[in-house]
From TrEMBL:
GO terms for molecular function: agmatine deiminase activity; protein-arginine deiminase activity. One of its GO terms (biological process) is putrescine biosynthetic process. Keywords: Hydrolase. Transmembrane segments: none annotated. It comes from the Eukaryota. Signal peptide: none annotated. Coiled coil: none annotated. This is Agmatine deiminase. Pfam families: PAD_porph.
Amino acid sequence: MTMRMFGEWEVQKAVWMQWPWSYEKSYIPTFREIVKHVTRLQDCVLVVQKQGDKAKVKQLLVESGANVERVSFVVCKYDNAWMRDNGPIWGCENGTPILMDFEFDAWGKSKDALGWKNDNKVTVKIAPEVVPGAQVRSFNMVLEGGNVESNGIDSVVLCWPTQAKRNPSIGRTQQEEILKNAFGTQTKIVWLEQAPPSDVITGGHIDGMARFISDKVIVVAQTDSQNEDFQAYESAAETLSKAGFVVIRLQTGGDIKYKREWMTANYLNWVVGNGFVLVPAFGIEHDQVAKQQIQGFFPGRVVELVDCRELWVNGGGLHCVTNNQF
């Protein structure tokens, strides 16, 4: 059996999250809602800063209706709440869980980040406690989990402009060698050549552009021709179609205003779990349209809307703050 990554629709053991602290405390209501929905059907692992946080967070979750019997806590220092990006990328080799630990530098040392040195150590620190027997493999290249999308079989999709900015001294050929070493030598690497201009913090992550719903079908965002991200999405759809995938489009909900900031209501940043899908909501009528379409992508799963505006205005969404353990 060769090394492979998981498709996010596969059976999972838990959803991991780093509980918001410092200036990110405004995310807590969204986190409470996510944990409530997750724990109806599967376990949740919450990373907290110190022992004293456990009881406080647990009480908040009880009040929000979460099943706290499904919640476990891990104490570890971290910087930001965006665990998709600094946490492990999951794979499997001969039945053994593989946690791939790439470098993390807070989105190119973003001025908006708390820092990244603690974030960059989280996977190595907590893996022995949470996943005993798993292997941690570290790679000397920056790669955020939000910028790699796997079909669970033999292909991954990444946004090249983001990877080029993060690793200016590592060319495309060498990056592909590192990725194949990590994900499996048979892995097909598909690069998207344009990043959405609106994604100013991350510089362009795949989980806001294109998402697999099966090994052969991928959903790509679609917006009107006047939107600044239009060309990036059209280019992505063309590239993925030429790569041999069936491409389905998911319309955005247009531009909305939140806390004096304009942003596009993008529904690609969903979270898939055991029997459920959490879909970003923006407080607009189109939320229901997107929910119905995504329900069609995942028949048999409960689809829930979760208001993500507080996350989205800060550069991410539901998928960005979660990390799926397989």
